[in-house]
Amino acid sequence: MSMSRDALVERIISLLPDADCGGCACGTCTACAEAMADSKDPTLCPAVNQKIVDKMARAMGIEAPTIREMVAFLGCSGCAAGVERFRESCSTCQEAVDGGFMRGECKDGCVGLGSCIKVCKFGAMSMVDGKLVIDHETCTGCGVCAEEIVCPQNLIRMIPREASNFIPCSSTEEDQEKVRSTCNYGCIGCGECEIVCPQDAVHLIDNHAVIDYDKCAGCDACTIRCRKKIIIDTYHDLGSLKESVAFVHCSEGSKAGKVYEEMGITSCEEAATLSQKELNLCTTGCCGLGSCTKVCRYGAITMVDGTAKVDPEKCVGCRDCYLTCPKHIISMVPYSGQKMVACSSVRDYEEKLEICSAACTGCGDCVANCPNDAIYMEFGHAVIDPLICEDCKMCQYVCARNVIKELEVPEYIFTQREVVSTSKGEVFR
Fold first, then answer.
1. Per CATH, is 244-412 categorized as 3.20.20.60?
2. Three-point CA angle 196, 175, 197, nearest 5°
3. How far apart are CA 343 and CA 306, in angstroms?
């Protein structure tokens, strides 16, 4: 027996969030319930899930339609849009945007004043350390926060709840170097994700990558190939899925660090402008002040005994440290367990012995004993070609100064690589 209209309206009201959020454009939950009862459409409220739609459809005496549950997503992960400056002078996001951005600030980023938080009737948004955080478990997908009147930067998008890959950047900046210097989380528009996507689901729009969730299959190709490693993936471990990792070609930076600290110098950039030779320091060694550790978003670089050291399991290969190091002693090497020489000194034998206890002295023993000809001498120090090295450990055995380091890789990584496809017909190596 079918319900009367009034009874149906009451039943629908009992199933709605009762928040009058405004996502349905009806104004109130009561008005939305009446519209549903009249149209026999249980999908008018965007803030309900499939289970609620099923219950309302049964009350209406119709077959339940399938909905795609959505949640809010912020297309920005940084705080480079003048967040601290605006917090002191503005009260709304619109006021901040109207005020304009200064040189060095991201004109497309979140200004962090939380106008979206004020309109969220479900408590799904909060500000943590100056960054907007959206709780997807609490978010109902009403979509009010995504309206332009709320977010003047158009940073909040509604995406499928089941989505697994997200690109948290909306930068329209064309210059890659400006993006890197402005925000560690910025998309540089390299297009690698677009090229490798087997579903044609990723495209560059206004100089940043955007995912088409109607096509995305969650294969993870874009996450693996992203040069900046900013694509968020909820299924896989970024520390495992990577082609290369950073390696510091120095293992003795403690001496330099102590000298600079005594001089009152606090950054590697400032230290690199001085004459290391006059200070009796290695001209190509680590400054020991940790500028690389500050730009690493994954905690993969730490200062150990005054020298930057990379944890290959945490490193995702984003290259930020490589581009930050003013001494250019960090390089990107294949993540496959080869040996690397932790020294790039070009000084002569006697000088190396005097200023560093862990320098490659260019004796050539590793070159002479490598069975694969994978090692050669360059500017007075040994260099290992990771594409030829077969990890035989002979070089480590003959190196009297313990300069050659091993990049250890768990066995499961090799197995995983064989099954992770990064593009059409291509196997990740």
1. no
2. 10
3. 15
3-state SS class at 203: strand
Q: Do domains 71-233 and 244-412 have the same CATH topology?
A: yes
* Dist CA 208 CA 205 (whole Å): 6
Q: At what angle do helices 5-15 and 29-39 cross, to 10 degrees?
A: 130
- Could you count the other beta carbons within 10 Å of the beta carbon of residue 223? 25
How many Å apart are CA 262 and CA 408, to the nearest integer?
A: 36
Q: What is the DSSP track for 261-304?
A: HHTT---HHHHTTS-TTTTT--TTS--SS-HHHHH-TTS-EEEE
Residue 176 φ then ψ, to 5°: -60, -40
Domain 71-233 sits in CATH at 3.30.70.20
Separation CA 234–CA 137 (nearest Å): 14
Phi, psi of 150 (to 5 degrees): -90, -50
Question: Per residue in 162-176, pLDDT tens?
Answer: 888 889 999 999 998
**Do residues 129 and 37 touch, judged by C-beta distance below 8 A?**
no
Give the separation between CA 213 and CA 163, rounded to whole angstroms: 7
Six-digit token pair at 84? Answer: 């601290």
Tokens of 154: 């158009």
- Domain locations in the chain? 5-67, 71-233, 244-412
Over residues 184-243, the pLDDT tens digits come to: 889 999 999 999 898 999 999 999 999 999 999 887 788 878 888 888 877 666 666 677
Coil, strand or helix at 132:
strand
C-alpha torsion angle, residues 396, 399, 400, 405 (rounded to 10): -50
- Beta bridge partner(s), residue 156: 74
Q: Answer whether 0.85 is exceeded by the pTM.
A: no
- Residues 256 and 116: their CA atoms lie apart, in Å, by 48
Q: What is the DSSP string of 375-399?
A: EEEETTEEEE-TTT-----HHHHH-
